[in-house]
Specification:
heterodimer, A: about 200 residues, alpha/beta, Rossmann fold, five-stranded parallel β-sheet, five-stranded mixed β-sheet, elongated, B: about 350 residues, alpha+beta, seven-stranded antiparallel β-sheet, three-stranded antiparallel β-sheet, globular
C-alpha cells in the first residue's frame, strides 16, 4: 500500500463552510473548484452576507467561469501556482483575526499552501483542505536538496543532481515534499521498472 | 576508571576505528533474548554499574576525541547537519547546561565548569578548550549553545519542543545517524518523524512512547537501546551521504563479514529540560565488528540467532537485505546450539 500507510502525510477532510469565521479565503486549483463552489453554496444558504467577505484565489481548470457567477466579492484567477502562492503570501501578511482558509486541489498544491500557512503560524483550526485531483508528488532530493515537481512515477531522475531517486513514503510539511533517495546506490545501474503510480 | 583516548582513529576512508578489550566487555548488547521484536523498552536512566556505559548521564569513552573530530569533518562539509529553529534558544541553553554539568561532575579529570552567577568558565581538557562566557548571552560563545556543546559530545542530539500535546523536532545536531535526516524531519511531530518505521505504529509503540514522554519529569531521565547494522565502522550513515556508503552493503561476503559488518547500537537517553520544558533526545552510537563481538561466546550465539530469525520487515527497514545471510554464515561456526543465559551479561 503505497499511499495510505504514510504516517507523516497529513490527512485532509472534506471542506465545510465555517460561518463563524469573519473572513473566508479560498484557494483552489483545477478540480478543486468543485469543493469550493460547494462551500460557497453552503455559505449562501447559511449567511448570504458572508459572501461579501469571501475571496477566491484560483488556478484554473475549466471551471473559472463558475466562480464569476457565484456572487463572491473577489475572485482572482492566476495562470499558475507560483503566482497564486505569491499573492496568497501578500494576502496573509495583511489578513485579520477570524480569517478561515479553505484549500482544495491536488495534494502537492495543498502542501505548498500549507507550507506558507506554516510560515505564518496559522493554527490548525483556521485551515481546512480537501484533496482532489492528481496524486503527483513533489520530491525533495535528500542528496542535493533540489525539488522535482509533478512526479508520477515510482522512481524519478532528480532535476538537480540527475541521480535516479526512489520516491519514499515520507512527507515533510515544512518542505511540502516527499523524500527522494538514490535508488541504485548499492548496485549502480540496477533500476526497478519505471511505473506510473501517482496518478 | 577513565578510558585512554585513541585520538587518531577514523570512521571513514581507512576506518582505523576498533574497540579495546575493555570497550568490548562494556558494549551495550541490545538483545536480552535470542529473538528480537520492537517493544517500548524504556527504563529510568539510573546510574548503572561502575565502568558500564550507563554509569553516567553521558558516557565518555575511548573514542571521544576521535568522534568529536569526525563530527567536525561532517559539519565542515554539511553545515545543515546542525539546525535549530529560532524559538528553541531557551532549550539550547538548557541542553548546554545539562551536558556541561554532567560532564564536569562525572569526569572531573577531563572537564570543569565554574559558575559565578551567569559568568561561566568551561574547560574541556581532551579537546584543549578553555571558554569564559555569559550564560544566556549567545554573543559570548563562538557558536549557538547547542552547536557549541554538542561538538564536544559523542552521539547525536535532538531537542523536541512540547506543545499541543505533541513533541516537535525543532533543533538538533545529527552527524552519526542510522539513515534519517534532521534536515528533512525538522518541524515534524513525534509520529510524523517516526513515520517510516515499520510495524511499530501498528503495535501502538509510538502512541505509548509519546504519552510517556509528554509526562517525562525533570530530574527523572529515561533510556532505551535501539540497533541496526552498518558496514565498516562508519558513523555518518546519513541519507544525505547514502550514495557514498550504500555501495559498501554490496561488498560483504561470508569471508569478510567478520571485519566489515558492525552491530550498531544506539543508547537513547531522554531528559526534560528545566526552563524551556523541551525534551532532549540523545542518540549515542556504539559500533562493534562481528569479529570483536565473537570474542564473547554467548554474544556470538545470541546475535547469530537474532539475525537468522529477524522479521522480514525489519530486515528491509534496517537495510540488511544484501548482507544478512553473509553475516549469519560468518557467525554460524560460533553457534553450537547450546542455550544462552537470559540477559545481556557477557556470561
Amino acid at each position: 500500500m503505497l499511499v495510505t500507510g504514510i504516517k507523516s502525510k497529513p490527512v485532509y477532510a472534506p471542506l465545510q463552510a465555517d460561518i463563524r469565521g469573519r473572513y473566508h479565503l479560498m484557494l483552489g486549483m483545477g478540480v478543486g473548484a468543485a469543493p469550493l463552489l460547494r462551500v460557497i453554496a453552503e455559505m449562501r444558504a447559511a449567511s448570504e452576507a458572508s459572501l461579501k467577505y469571501t475571496r477566491v484565489l484560483y488556478v484554473p481548470g475549466a471551471e473559472a467561469e463558475q466562480f464569476k457567477t457565484a456572487a463572491v466579492s473577489d475572485v482572482q484567477i492566476f495562470a499558475g501556482t507560483p503566482a497564486l502562492l505569491e499573492s496568497f503570501r501578500q494576502v496573509l501578511a495583511q489578513s485579520l483575526m477570524g480569517t478561515r482558509l479553505y484549500v482544495a486541489g491536488p495534494e502537492s498544491f495543498i502542501g505548498l499552501v500549507m507550507k506558507i500557512a506554516l510560515e505564518f503560524n496559522l493554527n490548525k483550526d483556521e485551515i481546512r483542505a480537501e484533496e482532489c485531483g492528481s496524486l503527483a508528488r513533489r520530491i525533495y532530493c535528500i542528496h542535493c536538496r533540489a525539488t522535482t515537481e509533478e512526479v508520477r512515477t515510482n522512481i524519478v531522475r532528480c532535476v538537480g543532481c540527475e541521480r535516479w531517486l526512489l520516491v519514499r513514503d515520507h512527507y515533510s510539511r515544512r518542505l511540502a515534499a516527499y523524500m527522494g533517495v538514490m535508488v541504485d546506490a548499492e548496485a549502480p545501474g540496477e533500476l526497478p521498472l519505471l511505473k506510473e503510480v501517482f496518478l | 576508571m577513565s578510558a585512554v583516548f585513541k585520538p587518531h582513529e577514523t570512521f571513514r576512508d581507512d576506518f582505523t576505528y576498533a574497540n579495546s578489550p575493555q570497550a568490548i566487555r562494556r558494549f551495550p548488547l541490545p538483545f536480552p533474548e535470542d529473538n528480537y521484536m520492537y517493544s517500548v523498552n524504556i527504563e529510568p536512566h539510573m546510574p548503572g554499574p561502575a565502568g558500564s556505559v550507563t554509569e553516567f548521564a553521558f558516557d565518555v569513552d575511548e573514542h571521544y576525541v576521535a568522534e568529536c573530530r569526525e563530527r567536525a569533518i561532517v559539519l565542515a562539509a554539511e553545515p545543515l547537519r546542525y539546525q535549530a529553529l529560532p524559538h528553541m534558544m531557551s532549550s539550547q541553553w538548557d541542553c548546554m547546561e545539562l551536558i556541561m554539568d554532567s560532564l564536569a561532575r562525572d569526569y572531573p579529570e577531563h572537564f570543569s565548569l565554574a559558575k559565578q552567577g551567569n559568568r561561566w568558565h568551561w574547560i574541556n581538557r581532551p579537546l584543549e578548550i578553555d571558554q569564559h562566557f555569559t550564560f544566556g548571552d549567545a554573543a559570548s560563545l563562538p557558536r549557538e549553545p547547542l552547536d557549541y556543546i554538542t561538538r564536544q559530545a559523542q552521539g547525536d542530539f535532538v531537542v523536541m519542543d512540547q506543545r499541543e500535546g505533541d513533541l516537535w523536532t525543532e533543533a538538533g545536531m545529527v552527524t552519526t545517524q542510522a539513515d534519517w535526516s534532521l534536515d528533512f524531519d525538522m518541524g515534524m511531530t513525534f509520529k510524523e518523524w517516526h513515520g517510516p518505521v515499520p510495524l511499530a505504529h501498528e503495535l501502538q509503540v509510538f502512541d505509548r512512547a509519546l504519552k510517556f514522554l509528554l509526562n517525562l519529569r525533570l530530574g527523572a531521565p529515561v533510556r532505551r537501546l535501539n540497533w541496526t547494522m552498518t558496514i565498516n565502522p562508519r558513523l555518518d550513515t546519513s541519507p544525505e551521504n547514502y550514495p557514498f556508503w550504500g555501495p559498501d552493503r554490496a561488498s560483504v561476503t561470508a569471508q569478510n563479514a567478520g571485519d566489515r559488518v558492525h552491530l550498531r547500537v544506539e543508547l537513547q537517553g531522554l531528559w526534560r529540560l528545566p526552563r524551556s520544558n523541551a525534551v532532549v533526545f540523545g542518540i549515542r552510537c556504539y559500533l562493534i565488528s562481528l569479529r570483536e563481538l565473537a570474542t564473547v561466546p554467548k554474544w556470538a550465539r545470541r546475535v547469530h540467532r537474532v539475525l537468522r530469525h529477524l522479521h522480514p520487515a525489519l530486515i528491509d527497514y534496517k537495510g540488511l537485505t544484501r548482507y544478512r545471510e553473509a553475516a549469519v554464515a560468518w557467525l554460524a561456526p560460533f553457534d553450537d546450539g547450546s542455550p544462552t543465559t537470559p540477559g545481556t551479561a557477557s556470561e
